[in-house]
């Protein structure tokens, strides 16, 4: 807080001096200055510090050795088989959850778009309510449902579909379901916000011209919803790759976020944690760029067809 | 023709069954939380073996949970105030801005939402260590503001874009100062938007836990952080009690926001 406040008068003075009495833009800059100062001080500067610490040497008594420059942390990240397998699992989780989240999100958003009245409100409510409850709650509820002695297994056993309980939790099924539940509301809303601006008559026209219903959705709705689908995919992917709560509670495997938390809070190896974060962030940015290009091309092709 | 009709009817039925099943699945985990909070035993099972209010009694007796509740409220209100102030001013400034500074503001405000909270938590923990804010309420408020501000900002952008700016010019032509004209002309038209933005910021802060986990100390831990540490030790229905309170707060929040936005709509229709 103190930084934001002390920064504010200074930038305010600077704005006044440089712009003189041009009142309109002067006032605009003055109004935006606190937000800019905040983003600079609480977001941009901290990332440069993270970057700096990733190049520092480890130290036995402090969390890192100040004023040192080394690539040690990066070389230990890049040569560690353990860390690469963790990265692999994180990305696998990210891809699987993203695909499911976009497909189910598209279906659910379409259902919201097509429904009216009470059903529409109920469907929207079912998306917004989980969004507003904490990750912790959204995740642990799957434990009594999916555990070997949980509700689903008991149901399947009593129906005679399985002979012995299946361990969904802790396991890959559990973590995928849990993480999907975390990101799905965002995906639905991102796609729905685009669909809401769309004209239903276009789809109707396609059907009048003989397109079947699945085909009209695939060739008319999907391309137009592409901006929403891209946002949904990027959000689902970014948050699932960096997932922390769901893997920790529901999975037997370790993800990037859990590993880096251990490095930070238990082992106090700041440079290694910082370097691992930087590498992960770069890998994520690269994957998002690839995903963005692919989806954009997909949308473009559909438009031409 | 009739086979076509039958197929369409099948498709409609499958479509409806699909989204109703999803609806049930979306609400199921929340139902599990609320129902298990009334459990009569120490085992977290759904449906519970017996029902009682014992975990609610225990919650009200627990100093640690009540402290965490206070912390959550303090941090939530702090986040709502800072994020609303920054977001409203920023969006208003961008609305009357004619320069290019505004165009870098939107992406800059948005990016923090796309970065995994664990990375943000690490980054801010290192930073607050450097500047000596570690362990304070302010560190968590600032971290949560990073996530809450984009929401306030984008809500206000859409609210301001619907405002008739000639009213502001008219007020200023009539001799009102910048502050006076904002308070008397702009504010009455956008106050519901500000309320919804602030409410969203409060709820974001109330539910956020990864950044809070990194930044909090035992004296500043919030409800989700305490819930998390408890869950990792033992899964008992106490967590469900706390979660039920959080769900109720969120539902009340949604209702308030719906009322506020409908009032806004209503006042537009009447004027």
TrEMBL record, chain A:
Domain ABC transmembrane type-1 positions: 87-291
Pfam families reported in the protein's UniProt record: BPD_transp_1
N-terminal signal peptide: none
GO BP terms in the entry: transmembrane transport
Major localisation: membrane
Entry keyword set: Cell membrane, Membrane, Transmembrane, Transmembrane helix, Transport
Transmembrane annotation, as ranges: 28-51, 82-110, 122-141, 173-195, 216-239, 272-295
Domain of life according to the entry: Archaea
Membrane topology: Multi-pass membrane protein
Compartment(s) where it occurs, according to its Swiss-Prot or TrEMBL record: Cell membrane
GO cellular component: plasma membrane
Family (UniProt): Belongs to the binding-protein-dependent transport system permease family. CysTW subfamily.
Protein name as annotated: Binding-protein-dependent transport system inner membrane protein
Naturally occurring in which organism (per UniProt): Natronococcus amylolyticus DSM 10524
């Amino acid at each position: 807080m103190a930084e934001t406040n002390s920064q504010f008068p200074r930038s305010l003075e600077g704005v006044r001096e440089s712009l003189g009495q041009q009142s309109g833009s002067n006032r605009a800059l003055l109004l935006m200055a606190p937000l800019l100062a905040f983003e600079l001080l609480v977001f941009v500067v901290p990332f440069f510090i993270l970057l700096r610490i990733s190049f520092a040497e480890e130290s036995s008594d402090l969390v890192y050795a100040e004023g040192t420059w080394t690539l040690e942390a990066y070389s230990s990240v890049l040569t560690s088989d353990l860390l690469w397998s963790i990265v692999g699992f994180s990305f696998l989780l990210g891809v699987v959850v993203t695909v499911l989240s976009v497909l189910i999100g598209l279906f659910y958003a379409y259902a919201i778009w097509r429904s009216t009245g009470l059903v529409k409100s109920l469907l929207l409510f079912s998306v917004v309510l989980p969004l507003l409850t904490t990750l912790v709650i959204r995740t642990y509820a799957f434990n009594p449902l999916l555990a070997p002695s949980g509700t689903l297994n008991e149901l399947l056993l009593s129906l005679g579909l399985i002979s012995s309980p299946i361990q969904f939790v802790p396991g890959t099924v559990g973590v995928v379901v849990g993480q999907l539940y975390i990101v799905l509301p965002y995906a639905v809303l991102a796609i729905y916000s685009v669909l809401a601006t769309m004209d239903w008559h276009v789809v109707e026209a396609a059907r009048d011209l003989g397109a079947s219903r699945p085909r009209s959705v695939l060739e008319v709705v999907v391309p137009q919803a592409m901006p929403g689908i891209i946002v949904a995919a990027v959000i689902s992917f970014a948050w699932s790759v960096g997932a922390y709560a769901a893997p920790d509670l529901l999975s037997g495997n370790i993800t990037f976020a859990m590993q880096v938390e251990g490095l930070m809070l238990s082992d106090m190896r700041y440079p290694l944690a910082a370097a691992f974060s930087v590498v992960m962030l770069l890998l994520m940015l690269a994957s998002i760029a690839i995903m963005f290009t692919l989806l954009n091309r997909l949308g473009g092709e559909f438009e031409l067809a | 023709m009739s086979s076509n009709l039958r197929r369409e009817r099948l498709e409609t039925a499958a479509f409806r069954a699909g989204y109703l099943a999803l609806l049930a699945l979306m609400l199921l985990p929340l139902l599990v939380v609320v129902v298990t909070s009334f459990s009569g035993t120490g085992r977290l099972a759904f449906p519970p073996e017996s029902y009682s209010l014992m975990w609610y009694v225990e919650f009200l007796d627990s100093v640690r949970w009540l402290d965490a509740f206070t912390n959550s409220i303090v941090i939530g209100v702090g986040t709502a105030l800072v994020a609303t102030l920054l977001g409203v001013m920023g969006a208003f400034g961008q609305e009357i801005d004619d320069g290019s500074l505004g165009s870098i503001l939107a992406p800059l405000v948005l990016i923090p939402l796309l970065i995994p909270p664990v990375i943000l938590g690490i980054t801010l923990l290192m930073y607050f260590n450097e500047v000596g804010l570690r362990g304070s309420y302010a560190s968590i408020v600032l971290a949560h503001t990073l996530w809450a501000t984009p929401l306030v900002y984008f809500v206000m952008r859409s609210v301001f874009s619907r405002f008739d700016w000639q009213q502001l010019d008219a007020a200023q032509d009539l001799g009102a100062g910048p502050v006076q004209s904002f308070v008397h002309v702009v504010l009455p038209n956008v106050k519901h938007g500000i309320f919804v933005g602030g409410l969203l910021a409060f709820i974001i802060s109330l539910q956020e836990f990864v950044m809070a986990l990194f930044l909090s100390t035992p004296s500043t831990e919030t409800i989700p952080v305490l819930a998390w540490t408890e869950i990792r030790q033992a899964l008992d229905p106490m967590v469900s009690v706390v979660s039920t309170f959080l769900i109720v707060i969120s539902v009340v929040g949604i209702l308030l926001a719906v009322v506020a936005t409908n009032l806004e709509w209503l006042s537009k229709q009447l004027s």
